[in-house]
Write a structure and sequence with these properties.
3 strands, mainly beta, single chain, binds zinc ion
Length: 61
């Protein structure tokens, strides 16, 4: 009998939803990704409406 584990979703970094702009709440566009000093990554998002930017750092696994 096969074990069918439907709860095991593949771990897919990079599939995160873009953040909302703090000023106008528009969904922000991913601009670029930089590597941090600690081996994690920093994603830069920019608002297409008011051009404000936001960076989100994710720690290394
Ligand atoms: Zn905005």
């Amino acid at each position: 009998m096969r074990h069918n584990d439907t709860n095991a979703l593949p771990d897919a970094p990079g599939q995160l939803d873009p953040p909302r702009c703090v000023d106008c709440h528009t969904a922000m566009r991913h601009s670029c990704t930089e590597e941090t000093e600690t081996g994690g990554e920093r994603r830069i998002y920019e608002c297409v409406k008011c051009t404000s930017t936001q960076s989100i750092e994710t720690a290394a696994a």
